[in-house]
Amino acid sequence: MTMISLTAIAITLLLSLLLARPTGLYMAQAFNYEKSVLDRWFGWLEKPIYAIGGIQKDNQTWKQYALAVVLSNSVMILLVYLIFRFQGVLPLNPSGIASMEPTLAFNTAISFMTNTNLQHYSGESGLSYLSQMIGIVFMMFTAPASALAVLIAFIRGLAGKPLGNFFVDLIRCITRILLPIAFVLALVFVALGVPQTLEPTAAATTLEGVTQEIARGPVASFLSIKELGNNGGGFFGVNSAHPFENPGGISNLLQILLMLLLCTSLPFTYGKMVGNKKQGRVLFVSMAMMFIVFLGITLASENAGNPVVNALGIQHDQGSMEGKEARFGVAQSALYAVVTTASETGAVNTMHDTLTPIGGLITIGNMMLNTVFGGVGAGFINVLMYAMIAVFLSGLMVGRTPEFLGKKIEGKEMKLIAVTLIINPLLILLPTALAVMTQSDTISNPGFHGLTQALYEFTSSAANNGSGFEGLGDATPFWNITTGIVMFIGRYFSVITMLAVAGSLAVKKPVPETSGTFRTDNALFGTVFLGAVLIVGALTFFPALALGPIAEFLTLKP
Amino acid sequence: MKTIAVTLRASVVLMVIILAYQLAVTGIAQAVAPEKANGSLIYNNRNEIIGSELIGQNFTSPGYFHSRVSSIDYNGASSGTPNYAPSNPDMLDRTQASVVAWQSENPDVPVSELPVDLITNSGSGLDPHISIRAAEVQIPRVSTSTGISADQLQQLVDKHTKDRELGVFGEPTVNVLLLNIDVQKLVSGQ
């Protein structure tokens, strides 16, 4: 790894930093119900949707809001499930792809609605263009929009305002944020070489006279929303490692910026909406620090390469190249891997199964914590949850009732938070144990790495990330059904509990701030917050990690 | 019940809008940059498709530059796996076999100069590129097999080398298919 590679990483992160604040402030404006110039820009598109949808714009209680999220998302899952099941006989299927079998369709529909994008099929051979265009891409807009809507409602609750209306927030997120950015970037991706065609798979005769089939399709319009919405599901099976889905250094840069755009902006949206910009900044800096440390460790580990391969006496300056593309090399692959797991996107430009043990450990760790920025909406709700835990712990230490944004955090809120916290390890560890016991024939690697494969799959599902250790033979009813259930609970359980917290806080009377109030917008709070994340998160999963990647690292000798 | 009805109606409108977005992008792409939008395909003079600039091909003949290892033999109908985890014994077996094959095909170049990207499986299995060094170490073999001088081959490698984009992003690479098309032209010209 050279200075140039490190410079490229520094430039990427700097660009991302520059974009975060303006985007965050724009988002706060986009969800502001007061009249603004944005109504004029986007009203022409929004009004017909409200009219045809029969959407009434009145404020909802937390229960109505939560019900609207879960019910509407379930209806969308059913709709898209039906499209997958009948894609073989529906139009826009030039490559003649068959209909999907039931458990796989179940898994795939939930996967994309929950913003996970775990894929147990390969896009080029498993989905018709119709399924890609109005099944998958439709959900790639509505899933992040639903998550963002929940976060915005949550923040409104914290700010003591009415929670708003789910459908209005959903539509605004799509029309004002996702669609315009996705449209522009899709065209840029075409200019960089990403295909955008409705022609079927091309057949070539290679220089050596072999027939080569070249799958293609409307990839660019898929790619931009895949990254922007932290969706991550690939048009092609190997996702952004595919040269069509990520042709070079600039397309790679843009994808990284898109993945980080919304999730790094949300602290600023939050600061603006609750009127405490300093606290938003403290949370941003805390997360950025974790990110930088994790990135550094991964870069060092991948650059050192695989000791077993290096021992063959070959020229190994490039580092660990198994599962990586020549045009990205170690530096851009490691960066992408950390960004995609921090932002819970799940797009990959390198095969995570082949990461060195410590590189793999960091990617799993990112997903287990789900607070190093975290996926659009859901990640930041998690962050605020940990912030409240930090406040609660501090309150216990000094013997005062904990307060957050002037609202008392009491037994009711803490019970809801504790339940949310416990559900995560249950969703990951129990099915992993079940899989290791009963499904060992689908796990493609022996030894410690085999455990990591199963652990990664369920961590990725529960965190709604969607990347995978792809050696896993996961297109079986067992994996389809279990991960489908884990993804569903992983997403909607916390939606309900956290909206309940917001509903409860919204009606509380603010406590006047005194000199004895524990401040939640300074470096001390940032430290306590990081402590809460690392202690609670790391201790929960340490035993499983010790048996998986850490044991693999210790035993990997030439 | 009302929520269900609203969802169904809103979903249909959104599906139409989102489909329109994709068709609009397709229309613009096909009008402005049809070659790229259709997959950067390469045609021979009889107008038959011989590949895509962005998709790697499998080369086994000693007279061509070889691409990286591909577990799917560069079949672009699908992509990907299986790759091997660092601790997988099959990984060691496969790389060892690659090294042995290298020694018998390239007796003039010692194993210590064999770059790691030539014996590892790319992420996509369709990697169109190799590193510059991976191209240069193959020059002696291609030269012996085709009779093209090493200098001339070096010039071709330089011609198809692409620097980092904007000078910093990604790694410098050599496009194997484009390079081999030029090699083939020289061979058939002779």
UniProtKB/TrEMBL annotation, chain A:
Belongs to the KdpA family. One of its GO terms (molecular function) is P-type potassium transmembrane transporter activity. Part of the high-affinity ATP-driven potassium transport (or Kdp) system, which catalyzes the hydrolysis of ATP coupled with the electrogenic transport of potassium into the cytoplasm. This subunit binds the extracellular potassium ions and delivers the ions to the membrane domain of KdpB through an intramembrane tunnel. The keyword Transport applies. One of its GO terms (cellular component) is plasma membrane. The chain crosses the membrane at residues 65-84, 133-155, 176-194, 253-270, 282-300, 372-396, 416-437, 478-502, 523-548. It is a multi-pass membrane protein. This is Potassium-transporting ATPase potassium-binding subunit. InterPro entries: KdpA (IPR004623). The system is composed of three essential subunits: KdpA, KdpB and KdpC. Keywords: Cell membrane, Ion transport, Membrane, Potassium, Potassium transport, Transmembrane, Transmembrane helix, Transport. It comes from the Bacteria. HAMAP family: KdpA (MF_00275). It is found in: Cell membrane.
TrEMBL record, chain B:
Its main location: membrane. Keywords: ATP-binding, Cell membrane, Ion transport, Membrane, Nucleotide-binding, Potassium, Potassium transport, Transmembrane, Transmembrane helix, Transport. It is a single-pass membrane protein. The chain crosses the membrane at residues 12-33. Belongs to the KdpC family. It comes from Paenibacillus typhae. GO terms for molecular function: ATP binding; P-type potassium transmembrane transporter activity. It is found in: Cell membrane. This is Potassium-transporting ATPase KdpC subunit. The system is composed of three essential subunits: KdpA, KdpB and KdpC. The keyword Hydrolase does not apply. Part of the high-affinity ATP-driven potassium transport (or Kdp) system, which catalyzes the hydrolysis of ATP coupled with the electrogenic transport of potassium into the cytoplasm. This subunit acts as a catalytic chaperone that increases the ATP-binding affinity of the ATP-hydrolyzing subunit KdpB by the formation of a transient KdpB/KdpC/ATP ternary complex. GO terms for cellular component: plasma membrane. InterPro entries: KdpC. Pfam families: KdpC.
